[in-house]
Amino acid sequence: MQTLRLGTRGSPLALTQAGLVRDALVAAHPGLSVEIVVIRTTGDRVQDRPLAEIGGKALWTKELDRALLAGEIDCAVHSMKDVETVRPAEIAIVAMLPRADVRDRLVGAVSIEALPPGARIGTSSPRRAAQVRSLRPDLSPVLFRGNVDTRLARLAAGEAEATLLAAAGLERLGRDDVGVAIPTTVMLPAPAQGAVGIECRAADEDATRLLAAIDDPQTHACVRAERALLAALVADCHSPVAALARIEGGVLTIDATLYAEDGSESVSAQQAGAPEDVGVSQALAAKLLELAPPAIRQLFAG
Ligand SMILES: NCc1[nH]cc(CCC(=O)O)c1CC(=O)O
């Protein structure tokens, strides 16, 4: 019997997502054995500082990349939202599970408008901080890191009046009773939010074939377009950028908003085209940068 070693981070959400991938693989390939291998990452170790300070990039992927390239695992599961835009050439993103709810959930109030004046919002996301301040300049973002349970505990301990969490993570942890979903028209999500991706070594034909069977092409095309936008903006998961693609009638439409860090300014645009055409995202990036005031433009495109 063939065994596939599936690398993952060790957080409760990562382990749940790895379980979903294993179940999908076993359903697609009866007789395949999938071994889940937990790899500890820098992002999991250091929880008390903003991500950008710890060295910024590759916090969640570096150790998994190393294990993959060293042959200790055959594939790696990631929340696509946390995967850097530029990946090593030897590693290929082969498959994505069907996307979960892409929205953010507000925990602590029924809506952003309902929050008391000056309320503290626990988040470590520059996007969420800018978005709440663009909606309510009186609100004050405070640094909140750690996994979902840690953040909810810090909220319960009174360290903030509210926090924002991805609906996808809450749902996968069976916590969809927590908070209220904010419509994407009010708060556009992070690029790739709600998508779980699986990578393998680009040269590994066996793993590529096994993983291809569980790929959701619609999710993959939308997330590819959102990531191509980040690449064209020279942005990453620490940039105040929101983007969401959808496919309807064979046409991919992508919406995006760039923010000034304090949320005082923002610029939004939309672009549509063929799902496989990265030119759609590149055209959108060009449009956004052209419309952006200097305070926003300086944050992007290098
Ligand atoms: N950066 C942390 C992170 N990465 C992926 C998710 C949730 C799951 C997802 O968006 O796919 C979260 C937590 C959150 O934003 O609430």
UniProtKB/TrEMBL annotation:
It comes from the Bacteria. Its cofactor is dipyrromethane. InterPro entries: HemC (IPR000860), Porphobilin_deaminase_cofac_BS (IPR022419), Porphobilin_deaminase_N (IPR022417), Porphobilinogen_deaminase_C (IPR022418), Porphobilinogen_deaminase_C_sf (IPR036803). Keywords: Porphyrin biosynthesis, Transferase. The keyword Transferase applies. Its EC number is 2.5.1.61. Residues 4-207 form the Porphobilinogen deaminase N-terminal domain. Pathway: Porphyrin-containing compound metabolism; protoporphyrin-IX biosynthesis; coproporphyrinogen-III from 5-aminolevulinate: step 2/4. It catalyses: 4 porphobilinogen + H2O = hydroxymethylbilane + 4 NH4(+). One of its GO terms (molecular function) is hydroxymethylbilane synthase activity. Binds 1 dipyrromethane group covalently. Residues 221-287 form the Porphobilinogen deaminase C-terminal domain. Monomer. Tetrapolymerization of the monopyrrole PBG into the hydroxymethylbilane pre-uroporphyrinogen in several discrete steps. The porphobilinogen subunits are added to the dipyrromethane group. Belongs to the HMBS family. This is Porphobilinogen deaminase. It comes from Sphingomonas donggukensis. The gene is hemC.
